[in-house]
DNA sequence: GCCCAGGGCTATC
DNA sequence: GATAGCCATGGG
């Protein structure tokens, strides 16, 4: 990867193309809910108070890459990690060993980066996701951030974004304050999670420092009221960089019933099972 | 209007 | 441990 500043606050990233890092696939594959597409295909988003505008481009010399509104230090120190660009998926995944459906999904979905998102945001986002569709999840989270997040104006005033409300923000909002945002019955789960973390009844830093295996992290996450196996797997995959976790939602159930005779052995996908899962999820949803 | 959504909790067996 | 209702809400 090569990074250079081309004007103040704007960098050029080369050494990756869309088969490694595809913006639409990465942002629209259902792992994140707060990146918005502009008319020119660029995306704008905010994570941990770092805002980014990123556009996929083909440069005049024929090389492909990205133009990003950020600085080199923030790119190197934050976004490279966020997009897992330090991980070579070709080394994690045994492509030639994939079964037919998994290979089709891989061919269709390659370019997806499994994001390393903020753990707290991921916990709350996927509590909200349960029995909800993706457009609804997005609008609900947007309402939550607009009401209880911090307003941030970025890129010379072009965009007004909102940070994700932190634990104290949710506690200050109170259960009553969470109502009216479209959270439905999940409002209590969210408030309870904030209380559990604030009271140190649940230390999420233990999860992040944890070198324990994925199963133990998933088990631990299910101690939260409102987090079951599926949501715990999503949090492990998108918020804890557990690339082997394998969330099974209603779409994955359809895949398993249709293409795997009702049961799937994920051990054949090895350490990158979650990546395969995400290819499958994206593949089935984009083609239905 | 109707069906459904990146499910989980509770009661009941 | 398995299975059956129930849960709030709004996108399509």
How many extended strands? 8
Give the amount of beta strand, in percent: 5-15%
Uncertain segments of ≥5 residues (pLDDT<50)?
none
* Order of the strands making up the biggest sheet: 1-2-6-5-4-3
Distance between the termini: 35 Å
Mean pLDDT: 96
Structural class: alpha+beta
Outline, from the CA principal axes?
globular
Description:
This protein is of the alpha+beta class and 288 residues long. It is 45% helix and 14% strand. The chain is built from 13 helices and eight strands. The protein has a six-stranded antiparallel beta sheet. Helix 4 crosses helix 13 (273-286) and helix 10 crosses helix 11 (229-239). The radius of gyration is 19 Å and the shape is globular. It binds a DNA duplex (13 and 12 nucleotides) through helix 6, helix 11 and helix 12.
Question: Briefly, what is this?
Answer:
With 288 residues, the chain is of the alpha+beta class. Helix content is 45%, strand content 14%. A hairpin with a 4-residue loop joins β7 (151-154) and β8 (159-162).
Descriptive keywords:
alpha+beta; 288 residues; DNA-binding
Per-chain topology:
Blueprint lengths: L1 E6 L2 E5 L8 H6 L7 E2 L5 E5 L2 E9 L5 E6 L2 H11 L6 H4 L7 H10 L9 H11 L4 H15 L2 E4 L4 E4 L4 H12 L8 H12 L5 H6 L4 H8 L7 H11 L10 H10 L13 H14 L2
This protein binds a DNA duplex (13 and 12 nucleotides) through helix 6, helix 11 and helix 12.
């Amino acid at each position: 990867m090569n990074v250079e500043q081309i004007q103040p606050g704007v960098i050029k990233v080369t050494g990756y193309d869309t088969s490694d890092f595809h913006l639409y696939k990465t942002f629209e594959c259902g792992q994140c809910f707060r990146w918005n597409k502009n008319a020119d295909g660029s995306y704008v988003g905010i994570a941990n108070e770092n805002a980014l505008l990123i556009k996929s481009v083909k440069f005049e010399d024929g090389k492909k890459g990205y133009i990003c509104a950020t600085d080199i230090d923030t790119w190197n120190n934050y976004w490279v990690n966020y997009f897992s660009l330090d991980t070579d998926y070709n080394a994690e995944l045994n492509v030639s060993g994939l079964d037919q459906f998994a290979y089709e999904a891989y061919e269709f979905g390659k370019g997806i980066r499994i994001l390393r998102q903020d753990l707290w945001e991921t916990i709350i986002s996927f509590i909200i996701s349960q029995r909800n569709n993706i457009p609804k999840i997005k609008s609900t989270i947007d309402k939550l951030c607009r009401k209880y997040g911090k307003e941030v104006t970025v890129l010379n005033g072009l965009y007004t974004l909102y940070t994700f409300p932190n634990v104290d923000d949710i506690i200050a909002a109170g259960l009553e304050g969470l109502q009216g945002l479209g959270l439905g019955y999940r409002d209590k789960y969210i408030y309870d999670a904030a209380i559990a973390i604030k009271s140190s009844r649940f230390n999420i830093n233990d999860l992040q420092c944890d070198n324990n295996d994925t199963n133990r992290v998933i088990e631990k996450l299910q101690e939260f009221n409102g987090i079951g196996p599926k949501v715990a797997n999503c949090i492990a995959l998108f918020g804890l960089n557990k690339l082997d976790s394998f969330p099974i939602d209603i779409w994955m159930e359809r895949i398993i019933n249709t293409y795997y005779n009702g049961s799937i052995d994920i051990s054949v996908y090895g350490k990158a099972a979650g990546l395969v899962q995400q290819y499958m999820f994206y593949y089935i949803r984009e083609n239905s």
